[in-house]
Amino acid sequence: xTSTLSTRxxxxxxxxxxxxxxxxxxxxxxxxxxxxxSLGTMVVAVMAGPWAGLLTGVVTxxxxxxxLSPTAAAFAPVAGVIGLVAGLLARAGLFRGPVLAxxxxxxxxxxxxxxxxxxxxxxxxxxxxxxxxxxxxxxLQTGRDLxxxxxxxxxxxxxxxxxxxxxxxxxxxxxxxxxxxSDWPFLRHSRKAG
Length: 194
What we know:
Elements: H1 7-29, H2 39-48, H3 50-67, H4 70-74, H5 76-91, H6 98-124, H7 133-141, H8 146-175, H9 178-181
């Protein structure tokens, strides 16, 4: 655990948190139907592993909840799942190319839905103030129940968001020079041999 939370990993986590909050605020301010608030979490998870990714996601949302939006704190478990699953997928080699990164985004979106849907339904009645609420409202108006409307919204908005985020994380990490990433042993799972 000492190497897991070394000073440089903590610094990477801090950078990931700042990236998450900045991109998340931009997406929320312009009411995008996607969130863009987990790029830092995914990059940290791919570079430093699932536990660092989990910590990045959870701390991001707790800080965001304290500073900017109380709603964000309720989704800290969802952010943790994103980091944990991204790190596990990276360990399995699913960030080695763009197609694999996109598949990782799909898997992450499905995994987080198990946590996000109950939070949205039971704590917020399906409406959280994001741009994706439009879809929930529309589905409710077509006669669907709250749970299925929220499930469809979470899966739809997160598929687009997590695929885009996973592809961005892959592209960022691929673009880093070898000497910048050579000190991150976990990253070897996501780099092609040779």
